[in-house]
Predict the structure.
Amino acid sequence: MLHVLDPRPYTGLATRLKIEYRLNMIVADLLGAAIHHRVPILVAEGNVGQHWPEICDLEQIELRITAQDAEV
């Protein structure tokens, strides 16, 4: 099943995250989507930004980090 996500409802939220935490827009959109949809972020350890864990704690986003070679 394909779910198409419309970013318009959380564009303002993503913009706030971008400005407040000095993120690029791709990461801000990812975090904004996680907040808006109330879902965790699953990312391989090699792709975790330096400040992501701290930001996720502050924004109450569940961040799940998997081993680089783990199967999902």
